[in-house]
Amino acid sequence: MHPHISSWDLYFDKDEFTFFNTNYETIIKFIRTLRNNVTNKILIIKERGIYKISMRFLVKIISKNQIYEQPENTIKCIACAVSEIIYNEYDIKMYVGIRITNYNIVSSFGVSVSKVEHLVSLIGTVCRVGCKKLIFKKVFFECLKCKEILEIKIVSNVYKTPKKCVGGCKSKKYIFLNDHPELLIKDFQEIKIQEIPNYQNYCGNFENIFDFSDENSEINLDLDFKETNEKSKEKFAINENKEFNEINENRKQSIDLKCDEEYKENSSEYYYDSNEDSKEKIDMNCANELKNKDFGFKEIDNDYENTKKLNMTDCYLFDDLVNTVVPGDVVSVIGIIKAEKESNGLYKLNIYVNNLKILKNKNILNLKKETKDSDFNVFKDISRNKNIICSLAHSLFKNIYGNELIKIGIVLSLFGGTKKFCGNTCIRKEIHVLLIGEPGLGKSKFLTLTSEILPKSTFICGSSTTSAGLTVSMIHDPITSEYVVDAGALVISDNSVCCLDEFDKLNDFKVLYEIMEQQSFTIAKGGVICTVPARTTIISATNPKYGFFKENKTLKENLNFNEALLSRFDLIFVLKDNLDENYNQELSKYIINNDSKKTSSAISTERSDNKISEMIGILRNDITQNLKMNAETVLYQKELISKYISYAREYVNPILSTQAKNILKTFYLSIRNKENVGIRHLEALMRLTEAKAKTELRMIANQKDAEFIINFYKKSMNFSSKNTTNTSKKKVNNVKDIITHLKNLAINTKKTVLSYMELINELNNFEMKKSSQEIIELLNHQGYLIKKERDNYQIVI
């Protein structure tokens, strides 16, 4: 006997119901298989209206091709089966949404027409978020004459009022029933996701990236990355027992730390597994092979002909998926591709999202391998390198000669500090870097290489971007009369790096104030207030105001932006073209060897020369000598360093030891009275010290870290800090004070005629809004100065 399916009309037409329908057989098969699981979760399903089912379980019931090629019909059959089980238990007809999980086939963004009505999975960054809307799926009309009720199923949210009654009275007057119990209305939202460049080169095969199900359970209903990441964090973080004992004795902070025994037990359990037959055995030779491998200098191919625009795809969210993402989130979507006709008569491919997973700020490019024992074993071996920060710097920037301090500063910026909370206020962990120098000194090269290290990193030029392109923009949709939020470069690079070249060419610097300090951006337009996260590390390069750096002027006077923005940078490097003859010889030899592809010769040249002259703009000192490449420097592959940095950024959150705090405090107080520094400089020192500990995967930033950062900070900020204060300049309120001074000078010296340079030097002693040249022209125009021959000026007394 064939059982009747009471929930059939919720998903299919009543006229299609027959016992010989293939959908009927599929639904009966699902009812028999899912009954026990649905019964156990029936209260949750009734409350949420959502049922999650694993692809791993689906392929045991029906063929994989049927799910892939007929996803919409398959999802309806599953939903009908679940609704029928609920109806049999509670005698309630209920529409249920189905969410498919563990679909491991990740498609490319270049979706073709052959994929229409197929199931796909994409990974991308949310770059546009629309407003929440309501769409009708099923509506009801009532005839005003005979009270006949007519049901209409809607496609593409378009419906028409019936022309005449179907009950026989032929009345043309209908009324819409907005309170009908079977009226089906869904929440709807449109988003746009952007392709992540080169993610497949990092990951390779994506199998098991989105496998969140428990192997011992047939069906996965709700499992997140959280448990996996927490276990990884507890299991693999490297501990230093002495520092933990010190913190445990003296701490008065509300920080939850594991005890030494627990860390030690976890570490020994993982790193020193003596079971040779274990399938998860750690390959201890992997790190040694890595060290012994010959990492030669390789040319970086800047093949701009092969570059292409990143693809974007429109996605439609429904029900519980609405309002779950913001611009900048990295998401994986599973959905059905559909072709929709536009107003111009053409068709557009959109994705109707079935399930959405917010990967947020996790490094999705390394999720596949984040639990591999061999990777963590290599990470541990790298962290034991005595001069790890030097190896990282020269591995990432091996094609740039010299500039060791800048390399170290960018490496520390990539690792970042530790996020802190003071009440409801969050103190940022990002380390912002500014490179200042005239054209041709390699600033853009640094930024280009940096943008290729971490995923979601972006490289933009200030002369070709706008404020909206940097942050977010709200676009008015003329069709719906609503606003759509578009994400800019800094929002898309959330929890990553944004490299800003030609920083001085930006139109509006004020948009960066909130992003660089509060790590978010708020926009209010058309009555809509939107706040999006922008936890982005900014590494920028700028040219001096006058084309070259004037040493007789302050750092602020050499730049086109104000001190409020300048103080938000943790590290400032000034590059000057004052190279000596020895440096020019070594640099030219390196460039010629590198251009002729004699990279091994270039490496040996740099490693063998122990008398390399000072870098650009920075004096020779002990710390720079220790950071130079030598025969003992170990170079690592770029992809390995990318994974190493990503792991440290995600799981290693060091705190300062008592000794480190005291050293940083003493240094800050010593320069507070001499230099133009503030609280932000102290916070920068703390972040840099924490980043130094991160490079070695340590949970405690100790005294040596603080001493290293202080020496590094002194040398890297030596020129800029020395020139940030205005030395004995007299502040004037108006031009009358200058006129009075010049008259007194002429009377006291009995000299009324001064040369142009004498006037310039005299006016440079004043702090003025206008330049000295403009003041001289103004006084000459007003008659207080009379220009004589040979650029001489007479002071009118």
UniProtKB/TrEMBL annotation:
InterPro entries the record matches: MCM, MCM8/REC_WHD, MCM_dom, MCM_lid, MCM_OB, NA-bd_OB-fold, P-loop_NTPase
Pfam family, one: WHD_MCM8
GO CC, alphabetical: DNA replication preinitiation complex; MCM complex; nuclear pre-replicative complex; nuclear replication fork
Subcellular location(s) per record: Nucleus
Keyword Nucleus: yes
Entry keyword Glycoprotein: no
GO molecular function, one term: ATP binding
Boundaries of every MCM C-terminal AAA(+) ATPase domain copy: 388-591
Keyword terms of this UniProt record: ATP-binding, DNA-binding, Nucleotide-binding, Nucleus
GO biological process, one term: premeiotic DNA replication
Family affiliation: Belongs to the MCM family.
Designated name of the protein: DNA replication licensing factor Mcm8
Native organism taxonomy: Eukaryota, Fungi, Fungi incertae sedis, Microsporidia, Dubosqiidae
